Amino acid sequence: MIDIEGQPILTAARMRTAEGASGDSAETLMARAGAAIAVAVDRLAAHHEVLVACGPGNNGGDGYVAAARLAALGRRVRVAASAEPRTPAAIAARAGWAGAVEPLTHAVPAPVLVDALFGTGLSRALEEDAAAALRRLSQRADLVIAIDLPSGLATDDGAVLSETGADVTLALGAAKPAHVLLPAAARCGEIRLLDIGVAAAGDDAVLPHAALSVPATDAHKYSRGMVAIVAGRMPGAAAMAAEAAARLAGYVLLLGSATDRLPHAVVRRRWSAETLADPRIGAVVIGPGLGRDDDARAKLDAALATDRPLVIDGDALHLLDPARLRGRGAATVLTPHGGEFAALFGDGEASRIERARAAAVGCGATVVMKGADTVVAHADGRTRVAMHRVSWLASAGTGDVLAGIVGGLLSGGRDPFDAAGDAVWLHTEAARRAGSAFLADDLPDHLTGAIAACL
What we know:
Blueprint: E1 2-3, H1 12-21, H2 26-44, E2 50-54, H3 58-72, E3 77-81, H4 88-95, E4 101-103, E5 112-116, H5 128-140, E6 143-147, E7 168-172, H6 177-180, E8 190-194, E9 204-206, H7 221-224, E10 226-230, H8 235-246, E11 251-255, E12 267-269, E13 283-286, H9 294-305, E14 310-312, H10 314-319, E15 332-334, H11 338-345, H12 352-363, E16 366-369, E17 375-377, E18 383-385, H13 398-411, H14 416-434, H15 443-452
Parallel strand pairs: 2-3, 2-5, 3-4, 5-6, 6-7, 7-8, 9-18, 10-11, 10-13, 11-12, 13-14, 14-15, 15-16
Antiparallel strand pairs: 1-8, 16-17, 17-18
Helix pairs in contact: 2-3, 2-4, 3-4, 8-13, 13-14, 14-15
């Protein structure tokens, strides 16, 4: 079983394409999947009896193969089915199961339930009798293991079609959007990837563990990166961004009014557009607490006119015309939350992955679509989706800290897509280390430990 961190994400259609490109038959792939499932269930189920709930398609076929393998290992295993198998591979797999098959609606519960009813490709809610039976069996089980996806989840957009859930989900061959996009992702429990011999590759992946490096022995404060933070009407927001950036950059310059709580290491100066012309500046962060008046708009115009990498957050996003970014020669990273994203790029029915991708490609910038399922999108169409979540991050000011982390990484010359992805990982890890009921002000103090975990 493999952790899905850093692994490719494939939609249902792309997974079918990958399976077809493998050159293996459906029966061969099913045999591999069933064998891998049996090994995983054998480890997870301890000495308990296992009930495998099989559907009529290939997901059910995987279940029949796994049940036969578990029986061969000497496990106590039963099979229940919602319907007769309908695909050739599933029919062959059913023939390989020597035991009885109970009707799903009358199946006796077991301590371990393996949900192999419906996996990748489901597009409608379960029939009510199947849904009710699955709920009943799940409620009576001590452990629910889903094959590929808990039955009732939409693969590609993370929608919940029927109430469902699992303690462990065994993803087959590749992660799917539903494993990382809410609300579906919250129903998957722990997710582990099983290798079924299919080469999975694509533009989308689960956000990997951040990878940082120790400063070179001959490094100095400017070579490590200089960040300019533009302050505005709410100086506390810019101060939090500056304090976060200071944990990663060699020099942080706060331009404009500031609070007294800033570390002395942060240099403070009056705002001046001319200051942004300093060639030592490696990145500019604008937006946290900026305001939305004419003064704020003039500061944003000055920042956009520079040839410095730019992080645009908060209020600046409300003043921005995304079309202006297409002509910028320097890297630009946008960090909108859901409301800011909708104001910039509009609403849509597509998944968060597709919406973030379209926004990034359209404006030629890296877009960090913030939320419990944050998506980082590159202007070339690649995306990374964060799967580790800390609900305490739903607090005012945490986005300002993230903007500062992005700026700190970007100032050292990092690729903007990598900088944004690593910033999201560090931000979440700092929140995890902060524990419960923290303030956004607390996060910079926990960045040190998060950074150390990446070296």
